[in-house]
Amino acid sequence: MSENGGREEEEEKMEEQNDEKKMYKVLMWGYLPGVLSHKSPLTSPVDVQSPETGSDVQSWKDVCGGGCGFAMAISGSGKLITWGSADDQGQSYLTSGKHGETPEPFPLPTEDRIVKAAAGWAHCVSITEKNDVYTWGWKECVPSSKVVANFATGGSFEGDAFRKESPVLTDQESPRSQGSKSIGSSVAHQDNKKPEETAKRRRIATAKQELESPPPADESLSAPPCIVELDPGVKITSVAAGGRHTLALSDVGQVWGWGYGGEGQLGLGSRIKIVASPHLIPCLDTSSHGLDRNLGNPQGSITTGSQTHKALGSYIKRIACGGRHSTVITDVGVLLTFGWGLYGQCGLGNTNDVLRPTCVSSLLNTRIEAVAGGLWHSVCLCDHGRVYTFGGNQFGQLGLGTGTDHAETSPRLVDAPILENKNAKVVSCGARHSAIMTEDSKIYSWGWNKYGQLGLSDTVDRNDPCEVPIDDCTPKNVACGWWHTLLLAENRL
């Protein structure tokens, strides 16, 4: 459910050249319903068999997590590999390529190498070496029309930008009607109307239903892989998939989004049910944030619109999606969040939905380098390797030593003794569990463990980070699916 961050392009190229001389393997632990429905969950790391033969047998490039019942990784030859649900396991059966237990290449309509990919609840998105973006799965997550006008510069949506069958008008609120509340260096465009208790219960029930029940296995609900049409010259370098929405980051630091936006997770300033075309999200657009005002920043260093814009950053360098919320990081390490806020997963000190990208002001003095989102929580890493978490903590997924139902609406430092003198560099979130990799190639996990997704040889939830035992290999990347975890590791000679 997350984009794990990356390196500069030149560094990536050099590392890729070195990687070609190394042998990698993928390990998995946790639960895939179609694979393990008649077996016990994998509570400890287990090698995933390579699907390919030939020169790169047993070689992998990266892990991409997975969705509701399926797993996804990239082979050494650049093939997208999926495995997971059987034909009675809902939408994921269609999304994962109907491969069942055996990892196999997903049938994409291209022979180009896949370099990055992400999976939502029941949809996937991938990037080729030529920067083409393909997406498939649940229809509402797959664009059905061409790119719309540049929303950030005042353009309006054109054509079939919104699905006609969606009840857009009944669930949409005008940006002008949204209250604006100063938060640090930005203006929070939020739904300030406190929800009724019945509405809150309905939203909680919906979230739990999404988590526990795969969507129906209906071919008519699933769209085959198609290329995402963007403006000419747009070069997408990373993607992130949420429960029912998608973000894509371009090489010039612009963020595009499409899919479901009912809680503001597409950053449009209103509750759009379905956005059927990629739109440009105005993450750092001063006019859309009202940054021409004197915001009275408590640090006293940001006073005018231009100063505020400069302090927030010039472009976006990282993106991540939670179940119904989104997070982005600017080039100067500022964290912006938007979307569903019922459990405080936007980190703004309240439980309001956030309809536009908004600065997490409590972290303004901390340079954020990586971020990931779960169904109800968020985890971010600062440049010193420290871990901050916020949002729902029903199963200890915040790693704060408590397992209560009390939400943390502002970022809290994870100061577990086991992480002392450890610098985290990769973070990923499952539905209700979290995992990090440190600079010394150690893996730590915490949270929900009903299906062994923490890799700790049992099914006991953890509210503190615990080290995952990894033998005979060196971890290189970790990626969480909804109920499982994948690890890319280098074989030790």
Write the layout of secondary structure elements.
Blueprint: H1 9-19, E1 24-30, H2 33-36, E2 42-47, E3 60-66, E4 71-75, E5 80-83, H3 91-95, E6 104-105, E7 114-119, E8 123-128, E9 133-138, H4 168-171, E10 179-183, E11 186-190, H5 197-212, E12 222-227, E13 236-241, E14 245-250, E15 255-261, E16 272-281, H6 286-289, H7 305-312, E17 316-321, E18 325-330, E19 335-339, E20 354-359, E21 368-373, E22 377-382, E23 387-391, E24 408-413, E25 424-429, E26 433-438, E27 443-447, E28 462-467, E29 473-480, E30 484-491
* Average pLDDT level: 80
* Helical fraction: 10-25%
Number of strands: 30
In DSSP terms (H or I, runs of 4 or more residues), the helix count works out at: 7
Note the main sheet. Answer: 4 strands, antiparallel
RCC repeats: 78-130, 253-332, 333-384, 385-440, 441-491
Protein name: RCC1-like domain-containing protein
Keywords: Repeat
Domain RCC1-like: 224-486
Provide structural commentary.
Residues 224-486 form the RCC1-like domain. There is one protein chain. The protein is mainly β. 11% of the residues lie in helices and 36% in strands. The chain contains seven helices and 30 strands. The strands form eight sheets. It has a four-stranded antiparallel beta sheet with strand order 2-1-30-29, with no helix packed on it. A hairpin with a 3-residue loop joins strand 7 and strand 8 (123-128). The radius of gyration is 21 Å and the shape is globular. It starts with 8 loop residues before the first helix and ends with a strand.
